[in-house]
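[AMINO ACID CHAIN]
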Amino acid sequence: MERVDLKQIEELLNLPKNLSIPLFDRFITEFLNSKVDRKVAIEELDRILAFLQNHALTLSLHLKQKYLLNQAHRPLTEDAAYFTKQELANKYRVSIRTVTNWII
């Protein structure tokens, strides 16, 4: 990846700090004035923002799957404990039916 690409990504990641609501509102006004039909322009801008939102969520999921969740699953050092429904019911002082409802 070229250095220019990395700089562009860094600038995009700093976008929330640089793009305030009043500045974005001014952009919307200029964008709507440059188009012939305001309704079509609003729908176009909404479509673009929806695409950006989807792309940002995709990047976030990629980060979580590749870097965060990968580290979270370490092998257990202890044996996992298993309890019967009766033991859980006695421990939490509930009925066996309640314990059955807890089980997913």
Notes: The mean pLDDT is 84. Residues 22 and 28 are 10 Å apart (CA to CA).
